[in-house]
Specification:
Elements (H helix, E strand, L loop, with lengths): L2 E4 L8 H7 L2 E7 L2 E7 L2 E6 L2 E8 L4 H8 L2 E6 L5 H9 L7 H5 L3 E4 L2 E4 L4 E12 L11 H6 L6 E13 L1
Amino acid sequence: MALKKISFSELSFNPFEKIGKEWMLLTGGNKDKFNTMTASWGQLGVLWNRNVLTCYVRPNRYTYEFIDNGEYFTASFFGEQYRNALSFCGSHSGRDCDKIKETGMTPVETDNCMTFEEADLVLVCRKLYKYDMQESGFTTNDGLAEQFFSKDPYHRAYISEITAVYIKE
């Protein structure tokens, strides 16, 4: 099945459901070498007069090096039938296994980035700005830092311009 490029005005979805409940695969690298990971944290909006996605990746994730070292990456969204594949990609490292083989997903190249044939929606993203989250940035003392960062390192945030949108034909 092929991907069809659409305009931003054709998008219609609830970002809270799409990112927080359905999840996305963040994929960095190119056809020669890439990795993907599941993410359920992110924002969509407008910043600096551009349509942007902000996503968060911990530095201990294998996908981190692919996103951090590249200019572009993809955020891909899938139907419920791929929940197990996304769960696998979020709980296993590409350092230790072949996620593509294990999930049966079909990698495809678009705009010099990698995504998957099974995706319903793909956002091609170009990094504009990155910053590292840190404990001193919390303005409340309600336990968020302890809840989300007591065992794992703080995330790097990537504010990225969405340069193209594709849907499954």
